[in-house]
Design brief:
about 280 residues; alpha+beta; five-stranded antiparallel sheet; two-stranded antiparallel ribbon; 13 helices; 7 strands; about 45% helix; about 10% strand; DNA-binding
DNA sequence: GCCCAGGCGTCCC
DNA sequence: GGGACGCATGGG
């Protein structure tokens, strides 16, 4: 299908925004998105986008995945005029959207993320998918068949040996992942049931997993549950807070948009480095 | 070889 | 409640 949208939908920025680790640009310039059991190829065209899914799948799944239903330009318009850093960051990051990704994948991905660089996170996750993920065959926009490994189900991870998991470069995080897989696979914890919790309750529930602290729990809230009021603070955001906000967390003012504001700042800081 | 990475658990106060 | 410390491993 075709999508007649141009504003606030920059695939390259989304790929590099640090919220997703399996999104990538292919050699032919198309983008590949994988989430849950769904796979999408997207090609940017002069008047919009060409997608590998039909209208029904777009309406049922990808539309909400890409958070279409939110007007990002309105959010940028609410930024304090005197906040020069954030104004620059938002302009620079214009086109980023907060993806609503698969909950289990977010939990494990952000457990892996601690004390790892983004390229290293991608490598670990990809190895995990090849080790224990279901292999499916899909057709790209050229009609050519491609093999894709989906993100491993909790049960599949439990079947892997410690040695196999270690080859994924998980380091000391391995036991955190096995522990989470056990709790979810044995249905002692239901990630879907967490939908009913408010933001604070959800944060606390996620925080119960070993290896999930304040930052990781907030990332899962934001990227897995669409809780845009949560603003994860990592090393980059900490530098921003120290340098531009006198050490005071600036996100409270933005309420339910705090997570989106945070994402603009994170992307800007990460990309510019010497901001 | 060195430094650091979208932090966290533990210990100690 | 907050501060120091160790942590496995890969990228730059």
């Amino acid at each position: 299908m075709e999508l007649r949208i141009k504003d606030d939908f920059d695939l390259k920025k989304i790929e590099n925004s640090g919220q997703c680790f399996r999104v990538r640009e292919l050699e032919n310039g198309d983008f590949l998105f994988i989430s849950g059991k769904e796979v999408l190829f997207i090609r940017e065209k002069s008047d919009g986008f060409l997608l590998s899914c039909d209208e029904k799948k777009w309406e049922d799944f990808w539309k909400s995945y890409f958070d279409f239903g939110r007007d990002y330009s309105k959010i940028r318009a609410k930024i304090k005029k005197e906040d020069e850093f954030l104004t620059n960051a938002a302009e620079f990051g214009k086109g980023i959207r907060i993806l609503k990704q698969e909950k289990w994948e977010m939990l494990i991905s952000f457990i892996i993320s601690q004390r790892k660089s983004i390229p290293a996170i991608r490598t670990s996750i990809e190895r995990l998918c090849e080790l224990a993920g279901e292999k499916i065959t899909v057709k790209d926009l050229e009609g050519e068949k491609k093999e894709i490994f989906l993100f491993p189900e909790p049960k599949a991870l439990l079947k892997a040996s410690a040695e196999e998991l270690d080859k994924c470069g998980l380091g000391y995080r391995r036991d955190y992942i096995v522990n989470a897989a056990r709790l979810v696979a044995l249905k002692e914890v239901s990630l879907n049931s967490f939908d009913n919790l408010n933001d604070e309750e959800l944060f606390n529930a996620l925080n119960e997993f070993k290896g999930v602290g304040t930052k990781v729990a907030n990332c899962v809230c934001l990227f897995g549950y669409g809780r845009t009021g949560r603003a994860p603070v990592d090393v980059w955001i900490n530098k921003v807070i120290e340098r531009f906000y006198n050490g005071e967390n600036p996100f409270g003012y933005y309420g339910e948009n705090a997570g989106i504001i945070q994402q603009y700042m994170f992307y800007y800081a990460k990309e510019i480095k010497n901001f």
